[in-house]
Every structure is written in structure tokens, then in C-alpha cells.
Amino acid sequence: RKEVEQDPGPFNVPEGATVAFNCTYSNSASQSFFWYRQDCRKEPKLLMSVYSSGNEDGRFTAQLNRASQYISLLIRDSKLSDSATYLCVVNMPNGGATNKLIFGTGTLLAVQP
Amino acid sequence: DGGITQSPKYLFRKEGQNVTLSCEQNLNHDAMYWYRQDPGQGLRLIYYSQIVNDFQKGDIAEGYSVSREKKESFPLTVTSAQKNPTAFYLCASRDRVVTEAFFGQGTRLTVV
Predict the structure, then answer these.
(1) Which residues in chain A are closer than 8 Å to B50, comparing Cβ atoms?
(2) Residue B5 in contact with partner chain A when CB distance is under 8 A
């Protein structure tokens, strides 16, 4: 089982649609969680951190479910500029005091006019 | 400006040669990471370091080596033992174990 799993997509949606991405992780001791956005041939950039209580930033909402070991990202009122790959990232303990950041394979979103 | 700088942006290497990718940060971050990304794929962890003079292997460390002699610098050497080195290499850093990571712009390595 992969440490972090995402549906690779692609998700093809019309402008204005609501789209949701899910991500599961294997290590229940994982401490922190993030969603990153990556545009074609560019470096990933932080979209939002994911908190236990859930958090919202404009059209974007992130949720964490520790019991089921998954995180989600909801995008409302999709824009053409939202087209990108969305990466789920989990901070996992790796023995002792070390932690490693593990990325999912990413979910490709294509918003159509 | 504070940030992470990777150089060069594009790099061509002949088969059998070692090559070193540079990663420098002036964010005063303790932890640094190297990832590899293949076309249409996610990021795979090569090596990471949480303090100076210490580093750990990631999931795909074979054929790579690193050093962390200074807090600001975490160079990655792609050795001739790496069978498929052509990829996009990304360096990242962060200041505490629970905060987000910041990335450099990446180095595209092509073996010719």
C-alpha cells in the first residue's frame, strides 16, 4: 500500500462546478497535512494546510478525518485558472525525531470553459 | 529576497558521468529535502536532512548522494549508478517539522 494515495484523475469539469479531491494516508501517527498546487513544469506551491477542525480559504475547503485517515479538498465555483495538478502531502514520522514529507501522485484538474 | 535557489535550471549529462545539483536557502530553515518527479508522476523522496551533518535516505536513494555541511546548502549528486537519471529534481526546505515546505524552481536533468 502506498503511503499517500490520490485519484490521479483527470477531473474535467465546467466552469462554476464544484469538485472534490480525496487523499488517504497509511501512517496513523502522521502529524500534519497540506494541499499543494503544481502548474505544468513548475514547482509545487502551498495551497493550504489542513487542520483537524477543517479550514476554508475563499472557494477552497480542506478537511481532515483522522479516524479514516483521509484528507479532502473541495473547490467551489471552479475557474479556468484552477486548472492544475493538486498534490496531497503528509508529514510522517520516520523513527526517533525525524519526519519526512510524502507526496501523493497528484490529481489533475482541467476546468473547461 | 528570502527563498530557495536551485541551479542550474537545465542540465545535460553524458551517460557515465556524475553531476551535482545545487540547492541553497536563506530562510534559516533546518530541514531540507530532495525529490524527483518524472513526467505525469508525483514527487518521490530521494534524501532529506533535518539538521546540519545529518541526513536520511528517502524512498529512492539508490544512485544518489548528498551532503549537509552548512545549514544553507544541500547539494545532490546524481552518480553514474543511477540508471534512469533524466527527471525534474526539486529541492525544498522548512523551518519546523510541522510547517509547510517551500520549493526551489527545480532542475531538469537530461542524460544524452
Answers:
(1) 97-99
(2) no
CA–CA gap between residue A64 and residue A79 (Å, rounded): 24
User: Cα–Cα distance between B48 and A4 in angstroms, integer?
Assistant: 18
Rounded Cα gap, residues A94 and A3, in angstroms? 12
Decide if B98 and A31 are in contact by the 8 Å CB cutoff: yes
pLDDT tens digits for range A7-39: 888 999 999 999 999 999 999 988 889 999 999
pLDDT surpassing 70 at residue B46: yes
Give mean pLDDT, residues A102-109: 93
Structure-derived torsion over alpha carbons of residues B86, B87, B88, B92, reported in degrees to the nearest 10? -110
Evaluate if residue A106 carries a pLDDT over 90: yes
Q: Is A80 helix (H, G, I), strand (E, B) or coil?
A: helix
Start-to-end Cα distance in chain B: 35
> Do the Cβ atoms of B90 and A91 come within 8 Å?
no
Paired strand residues for B76: B21, B66
The Cα of B98 is separated from the nearest Cα of chain A by a number of Å equal to 6
From residue A37, alpha-carbon distances to A4, A83, A84, B21, B24 in Å are 16, 9, 7, 24, 23
Predicted confidence (pLDDT) per residue in B7-38, tens digit: 999 999 998 899 999 999 999 999 999 999 99
